[in-house]
């Protein structure tokens, strides 16, 4: 009798886990992002000017409460909304590890300076 109860309990637990996985997969349908993640939707590059490349990217983010779409380590990411509100862009850590971050004078964006002196400027519209 005890063995039968254990068998029913294990069967019930297995069915419960299966239902949870099924519900989770239905909630995260194809095309939906998990909370706190971002993906690049479009990326356009314009190299028509000598020694200058203009890149524009559009990202789609599913940020948690208190977060907003931003940039971390040169990739789209969810960041604290206060950083964007105060325009303290370098607090997002937008540059790669070996680059230095500086705010533009009018706080409209930031620059990432590589050790070789190459500068990447990002402006926020």
TrEMBL record:
<dbReference type="Pfam" id="PF12020">
    <property type="entry name" value="TAFA"/>
</dbReference>
<protein>
    <submittedName>
        <fullName>TAFA chemokine like family member 5a</fullName>
    </submittedName>
</protein>
<feature type="transmembrane region" description="Helical">
    <location>
        <begin position="6"/>
        <end position="23"/>
    </location>
</feature>
<keyword id="KW-0812">Transmembrane</keyword>
<dbReference type="InterPro" id="IPR040329">
    <property type="entry name" value="TAFA-5"/>
</dbReference>
<dbReference type="InterPro" id="IPR020350">
    <property type="entry name" value="Chemokine-like_TAFA"/>
</dbReference>
<dbReference type="GO" id="GO:0048018">
    <property type="term" value="F:receptor ligand activity"/>
</dbReference>
<dbReference type="GO" id="GO:0005615">
    <property type="term" value="C:extracellular space"/>
</dbReference>
<keyword id="KW-0472">Membrane</keyword>
<keyword id="KW-0732">Signal</keyword>
<dbReference type="GO" id="GO:0001664">
    <property type="term" value="F:G protein-coupled receptor binding"/>
</dbReference>
<comment type="similarity">
    <text>Belongs to the TAFA family.</text>
</comment>
<dbReference type="GO" id="GO:0007186">
    <property type="term" value="P:G protein-coupled receptor signaling pathway"/>
</dbReference>
<keyword id="KW-1133">Transmembrane helix</keyword>
């Amino acid at each position: 009798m005890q063995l039968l109860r254990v068998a029913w309990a294990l069967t019930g637990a297995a069915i419960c886990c299966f239902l949870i996985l099924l519900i989770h997969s239905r909630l995260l349908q194809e095309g939906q992002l998990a909370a706190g993640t971002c993906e690049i939707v479009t990326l356009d590059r314009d190299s028509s000017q000598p020694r200058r490349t203009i890149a524009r990217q559009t990202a789609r983010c599913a940020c948690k409460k208190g977060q907003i779409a931003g940039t971390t380590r040169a990739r789209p990411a969810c960041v604290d909304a206060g950083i964007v509100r105060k325009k303290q862009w370098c607090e997002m850590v937008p540059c790669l590890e070996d680059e230095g971050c500086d705010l533009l004078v009018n706080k409209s964006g930031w620059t990432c300076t590589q050790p070789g002196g190459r500068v990447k400027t990002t402006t926020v519209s």
